Amino acid sequence: MAESLMDIKRQIASTKKTGQITQAMQMVSGAKLSQIEKRAGNYQVYATKVREIVTHLAAAQLLQLEKMQEGSGNSDTAKQGFKVASLLQQRPVKKTGYLVITSDRGLVGGYNSTILKAMMQMIKDDHKSPDEYCILAVGGTGADFFKARGLDLAYEYRGVSDVPTFNEVREIVKTAVTMFDSGVFDELYVCYNHHVNSLTSAFRAEKMLPISDLDVSEVADKNIDYLTEPDPDAVLEAILPQYAESLIFGSIMDAKTAEHAASTTAMKSATDNANDLISRLSVTYNRARQAAITTEITEIVGGANALE
Question: Pfam families in the record, alphabetically (predicted)?
Fold first, then answer.
């Protein structure tokens, strides 16, 4: 019985240490979550402004095309000299690129498994041959997962910081835009867990390239006369990559926010489980100790009676 009591005491001590570690990790993840939520809020100001500028430029180009068509009456002549920006061009899809964002470490609950399971299902449903897609993995968990299954991993990046900056992930976003522009793939989807709230995230697969989400109807005044140097087409060609990069960076920020939320929730659950286990072990220990004391008292009383 003494050995059993010692075993229970060791389990209680070990579980308390584990609970202290998970509680500390919960606090760290909570602090990171708060920090990245503030950073993401500030980023949205920039993203909104870039979208506004790009949409206005696109609206101005469309208005120019309409005027040319009305003035000439010949659509072929009207389109002469009018070039659609490369990142806006819809081309036949021979190969699809997937930028998959996962974490570099574990202890984040079902965060990674949700993404990877959804990705495998998407590939199974949408592609008949491995030649039809390639994967760009951001995060060690996803990269190792796809490598182990022999999938076409065209690019991988590990070590994104807990609160990433644009300069840090510039290589990722520029590589994705360059690969699209050079024809490595004809469309790009960014796949990640979207942060809904501290307890909930949802898998997303957003089409980032070619850029197709610009809604000209959002522009209040389409009769804006831009003074550009050298010309509107060149300005749009220069700013569209920045817009595409901002979209991808925004997805990485969103994914990291969801990761910290998942880590906070997982560590809270682990801490609660540790506390529950400690409570159960304490009850077991007290019962075993009480039984041992009762046995000792019974033996003492029996020995005393035997001496009488």
Answer: ATP-synt
